[in-house]
């Protein structure tokens, strides 16, 4: 019959395909087996030798290294709803203070920019960078704009960043990440952390297959790669470049660090640095992270050591279309573009790993086709097994022992792959996810096949594969605490509290007082009281306020906060509340600084807003680096000498306190320095005995003329007690406080 002849011919073609696929799969399987053997031999050897003689490094060692300035670079295109949460979470969970987050947005993406601005208002170490060209350009182009902004910030502040960290807008950062980078930045030029996808529901095969691939890749494959050739591909997130590396990349690219025509600039940059002789490391360092509690709780089969490594966590796409889009971009960048930009090297070992990176364009097709072939053969076998007098179609595959030996070998290699996958997934996620990795193998083959097909099709259609737009992946962000709180302008809060009218606000905004910010200017003009200002500032920050007017901080309590810390954060200890120390501040303290205060003071802290001038006066009395006016003693002496009436003293003191200003506030108000720069400089000044003005001029941030101008403004705007007493003792027609 004709159909029988056609089907028989089809089977012969199928056999030829089967032989070809079996050979391809066998070669790939041997390649993977080699990596497995190296990993396990190395792991056993190190357990018997290195770790038997040396204990693993204590995480406390991370705190023994002074905090160096680190810059986090985050490119963001249409990331509203995500980027604000990421920046907020990073700023509140990172166990580090000396860092800045630079977020690159686009002029035609106002929603993302507005969300970044909301965070930036609350966190002085978060910076918004608007790219020069409308988006989407490429991730590399956005990063180049961000890097340029970082270098400009360095020029303004005198700060030199020791490390430059790559992150995406959906990343959940480990609290110890920056401490680990800080520890290694002077010795290594590319530091890569593991990436572990956040879990989706078990039925979500698309989102789940990322767990399987990254668990094995970042627990085994990259470990072997670093051990054999010392080269580590950047994952694009959780990567820290040393200053040496960034300078070398800028020199090599004539001022352009990241390749703007590459879809996988992160992967590309790892090879470029290796060729420049830079030192690269993949770090798996276990530290329990109670702040995120990402891996809290016991799960059967999970290794708590493996599951507590410092890592980056994020949600990966959970729809087939999104996963295919993302993976096709990886394939295009690593394989198709890589063939043109990354040539084979003189190192056979490095070429081997280049081949492993690129073999996916073949094996992704082969694995999926092998699955389809197996399904067809199973169907034919079931037909022959259960249909009486059926045609013996499988006889075409009989009689060739080498082919069955090849299939048997592939079956053994496949079992090894399954065992390896289950082990590494279980080590991090537990046995349930480990077992689910088996059905996800088949689904993963489909995703990779479709991504391969899309990448090849795009490359064939593209006139120039080096000029392909940024294919955005939609991102989810986990709910880990509250998102960024809406910032309310101080003037609007004062109006809402009834302390100010709209007309008064507009008048104050249109006629500012040089050297004073809005709240201080309103107090100096007697439009609002210091108590009203304190209530508004407290509402803006979501904290409470109180007055220290009837309190006196003793030396015993003052000693609980070192002078350098008190002056750095403009705070004074007010009272103790069980285990916590309550601090007084005239302005809101950002969460980064609060976390730093807890570390430096070694105990829980909270703060209360107090009226303007109260902290300034106490700072000078308790911690001033140079002698200041004994204002309170002068007032008491004048009272005893009957130069002022006793009932006049409280109002005189209140007026004096409300007019006191810190030099830093003056500099901020006149625009000589921005809050982010001042914060970075104060971290360095904290370790010196210099006054703020002397330190800023020494660092070249201020000229002596600019400092003198600020000091003159401070002297004119604030009043001394001696001046007040002279005014009080003046003839009746000339008396005035202000």
**Main sheet: strands, sense, barrel:** 7 strands, mixed
Q: Could you tell me how far the N terminus lies from the C terminus, measured between alpha carbons in angstroms?
A: 112 Å
> Strands across the major sheet, in which order?
3-2-1-4-7-5-8
The computed structural class is: alpha/beta
Give the CATH architecture of the domain at 68-483. Alpha-Beta Complex
CATH topology of the domain at 68-483, by name, is Spore Coat Polysaccharide Biosynthesis Protein SpsA, Chain A
Percent of residues in β-strands: 5-15%
Radius of gyration: 33 Å
What is the overall shape?
elongated
Counting DSSP H or I runs of 4 or more residues, the number of helices is 30
- Amount of helix: 55-70%
Number of strands: 12
For the record, the CATH class of the domain at 68-483 is Alpha Beta
Task: Return the average pLDDT rounded to an integer.
Answer: 86
Note poorly predicted spans.
none
Q: What's the CATH H-level homologous superfamily of the domain at 68-483? A: Spore Coat Polysaccharide Biosynthesis Protein SpsA, Chain A
Q: Helices and strands in order, then pairings?
A:
Elements: H1 2-48, H2 50-53, E1 70-75, H3 83-93, E2 99-105, H4 110-122, E3 126-130, H5 139-157, E4 163-166, H6 177-184, E5 190-192, E6 195-197, H7 205-229, E7 239-242, H8 243-252, H9 265-275, E8 280-282, H10 304-307, E9 312-314, H11 320-341, H12 348-358, H13 360-386, H14 401-429, H15 431-461, H16 490-496, H17 502-510, H18 518-524, H19 530-541, H20 555-558, H21 563-569, E10 571-577, E11 580-585, H22 591-601, E12 605-609, H23 614-623, H24 631-640, H25 649-658, H26 663-669, H27 675-685, H28 692-698, H29 704-717, H30 721-728
Parallel strand pairs: 1-2, 1-4, 2-3, 5-8, 6-9, 11-12
Antiparallel strand pairs: 4-7, 5-7, 10-11
Helix pairs in contact: 1-7, 1-13, 1-14, 3-4, 7-14, 7-15, 11-15, 13-15, 14-15
